Amino acid sequence: MSMDTEFFKELDRFALLVKKRVSTAYTGGRKSLRFGHGISPVGYREYRKGDDFKLVDWKVYARTEKLYIKEHEEERSIVVHVLLDASGSMAYDDKFEYASRMAAGFAYLATLENEKYALSLFCNRLYPGEPRRGRRYLFQSIEDLDGVRPRGQTDLKLVSDQFELLVRSTSLVVVISDFIGDTEKVVSSIYRLGGHDLVMIQVLAPQEAELAFRGDVKFVDMETKQPLVTRVTDEERKEYQKKLQEHNLRIQEACRKVGADFFSFRTDRDVFEAFSEMISRAIVWRT
Which of these, 104, 185, 255, 268, has the minimum number of CB atoms within 10 Å of its CB? Predict the structure, then answer.
């Protein structure tokens, strides 16, 4: 089935927050400033031997009779990396289709700003996409997503480790997944990716969010194919919802600690409405 991209027209009102000041050599720490010949003045310091004499601010010299260098913080374009979960659990209901539309939405926003973006798939490993820009690549990316059939298990910790080895510069990283699985691995991946401008987006089917089943039910794990026959009672439903809430609270807390954003959307939520909600968190902003 071809992806419905009608919501792109609505996204024209938004733009990525691309003027993020980023380091040019991220090595695993927090963001650092790189001073040089950029366009945003951040202060002055006294001239030191070896400095470029052309950087001396002569107006300041006229007032102080001392040589000062105007320092600048380089403003660089930010690469948007969208990491899309293509494991077996995403095949449930229409989760992968919904998540793909969200991924394409971020790619479209990057295209509006003529910024580079990369769409990467993952399951128990990362399948990295190449950062590119332009509408031609966007259309190709959408066509590729239409052909994906989710399968395999998920290992977010391994995926985040692989990503950090491949991407050395601070980027806008958007992870789209159901985040169903080992809470510790999800939390570990957040800390691993926390040096980037990180956005974690959870996509759940309504039945998963509510456990909207009753009586004797046979569940089959979409990743391991293991069956489970159980009786769903009101008490079990409450316990399930409690555990899901605790799981998500751990994710939210980890995101808070590293300055990342966490969103959870059900597939019955309009995609454009989801993007509208994310505006307030400075991922995107109204032009």
Answer: 268
